[in-house]
User: What shape does this take?
Amino acid sequence: MAFEIKSPGLATTVQDQGRKGHYNVGIPQSGSMDQYSAELGNALVGNSAAEAVLECTYLGPVLVTDQDAVIAITGAPVEVKVNGEPAAQWARLRLNAGDELSFGVIRGGTRYYIAVQGGIDVPKVLGSRSTYSLGALGGFKGRKLEAGDRIPVGTPLNGGALPGVDTVPDEFRPVFAKEQTVRIVLGLYDHRLTEEGLDNLLTGEWKVTPVADRMGLRYSGPGVKWKEREQPFGAGSDPSNIVDAGYAVGSIQIPGGTQPIILHRDAVSGGGYAMVATVISADMDLVARAAPATTTRFMAISQGEALLARKELAQRTNDAWAVLGATR
Amino acid sequence: MSSPATARQEARYTWGGDEFLFVEVSESMSLVANFKVMSMATRLAAAGLEGVEDICPANASLLVRFDPDVLPPSALEESVRSIERDLTHSHDQTLESRIIEVPVWYDDPFTAVVAERFREGFHQEPGGTDIDYAAKVNNLKDAAEFIRRHHEQPWLVSMVGFVAGLPFLFQLVDRDKQLEVPKYLSPRTDTPKLTVGHGGCFGCIYSVRGAGGYQMFGVAAAPIFDPEQTLDDFKDFMVFFRPGDIVKFKPVAEDEYNKIQEQISAGTFRYRQVPVTFELSKALADAEGYNQELMEALNGI
Assistant: This one.
């Protein structure tokens, strides 16, 4: 079966849990920006956590299914419409062959997900179905969807068995707020910031700018100061420059000391800007949900606390699957 | 080249959150630092630690991605530190590599057209070309002299990344002979695919079209990243370059460039390449003499 794309939306791509093992040659991990929301979409339709979904950015697609389908829309709050009639989000929906799925205006956050029983069935490239647009790799023909595309859907797992519960309870849905506290671990090149610069980063109020996409999010705010120094050979002339190095996913760089940039799933794998901290793995989904103008505070925690938060998120995800009666 | 003391100096260990270990071998770029990074990366890969997900050697630092649910951070750090200690005492200063001839059309029309769009506010000397500017800041006579210096001596792939398959290149010459050119004042939003660029002391080849801040000197004639894996050089993997490769640029004019395009279309193009063992001590003792030896390997094929 397949989804026929009538209108592609702003930036709709095929994503899954991402690809690892090729970052050393500059191929980023990619994958759904909001992994938690994408996963629960899969849970609702009887998929494993690894199946591919469609990630919609702000403006969703209009698509028609050529066969009966079981789908779920999760992620950022948006009006879901089947044949023009409102339908529920965070809940299992049944489409009949020829039904049209479309979306209204997003009411917060950035991205929502279309999960379908059987998963989006594009070929795996380097172990993943995720789209890496810059490298024209993976996903559907290595690019965002276009009108007229026919997106293949796979065969249901376990003979089409569905979990007992068809709606994600409120307490397991993420919050899409206009204010966020993002937990970070200081390190990498934080010693290159002045005391005042570090203080600005941790106590200042930052706002997500419109320059935010799958590669990263740029924030405006008080700025920071870098320590002046004689630059090492090969490092470039600005005090925020280093000899080009690998970038941790989630790391925060502050070119010229003006606007911090958090690198996300499609980010460049390396470059010449000093990083001063890294968003903890448990808060990467949170960052992905931040729409422009979201007020953000950065809270420094220890790596031990970050590992604890990671365990808590894993537990919460497992609990959500269990509540639905789904097998992860 | 920089003193071997860099190799004995202990690296700085720091964390990128809960999934990344960052090891800064040196703040400044040198062959010795890069060699140490690559040796550490090779040994870490050989150790086959469960929970290590990505080993990314860079110019003078190493980034390791790990799964902390499988491999606790302290265990990873201990393993990498132990590899570093072993290296300090090791006498093995060789790297299995290959030397590759990369045809380049210097001063080509493709990069010239794009450069035209990014002059005022982007470039240090909006009235001139990138090569003229590069020649001037390196106190060279003219563009031709700069181009000669660029392709006469080979380069080491000191890192692959930024975007898929992009090699960073460090010329294998003494520091006082290294070409240094500032990046654009503000990055371009466009760079032709296969542009041969330069920023700071690093050369590069842009594997895909996109944003970029390096000065543009020419265009490489053949692909270096091929997700479709059509050419023989990409049969095993879609990315051509590996850290530790040695690149010898070969200047080609328009007719030869066009011939190569025909070979690519016909699927018959192959890079001229030959395996070599790179010996650090020889490179440090007499860079250009050793380069001659390395380049002669290409004559045998």
